[in-house]
Amino acid sequence: MNQATIPVVNSFNEWDPLEEVIVGRLDGAVIPPWHVTVKATMPQRHWDMFRTYGGQLFPRELIDAGERELGELVHILEAEGVTVRRPDAVNYTQGYATPDWQS
């Protein structure tokens, strides 16, 4: 692989010190629509919320709390010398689909 084709972020093994990582964002996060995969991966106590509010934005207080936690994670990683990349915010209310599925 020549230098031009090496991805910006990559991994060659699982034991070298972490050098760089992407930490996502929660701005505009949407509650996933109800689906069998949500049922299989979410605790039952949250099923009603996903059934009722699927496709809508997460409540602001949950986004704010999650962003505070992500901010602390970024702070810890950077203090350890890890380069942290944050992607641009995305409009998660816009649908996405392939020929086989949609979300």
* Number of DSSP-assigned strands: 2
Ranges where pLDDT stays below 50 over 5 or more residues in a row are: none
Distance between the termini: 35 Å
Largest sheet: 2 strands, parallel
The number of helical runs is: 3
**Structural class from helices and strands?**
mainly alpha
- The overall average pLDDT, rounded, is 88
* Rounded radius of gyration (Å): 18 Å
Task: Provide the spatial order of strands within the biggest beta sheet.
Answer: 1-2
Order of helical and strand elements: EHHHE
| 3D shape | extended
Helix content: 25-40%
**Which assembly state applies to the chains in this document?**
single chain
Strand content: 5-15%
Overall description:
- It is built from three helices and two strands; from the N terminus they run E-H-H-H-E.
- The chain has helices at 36-41, 47-53, 60-79, and strands spanning 20-22, 83-85.
- A two-stranded parallel sheet has the order 1-2.
Short structural summary:
The chain is 32% helix and 6% strand.
Keywords:
103 residues; mainly alpha; 3 helices; 32% helix
Note the topology.
Elements: E1 20-22, H1 36-41, H2 47-53, H3 60-79, E2 83-85
Parallel strand pairs: 1-2
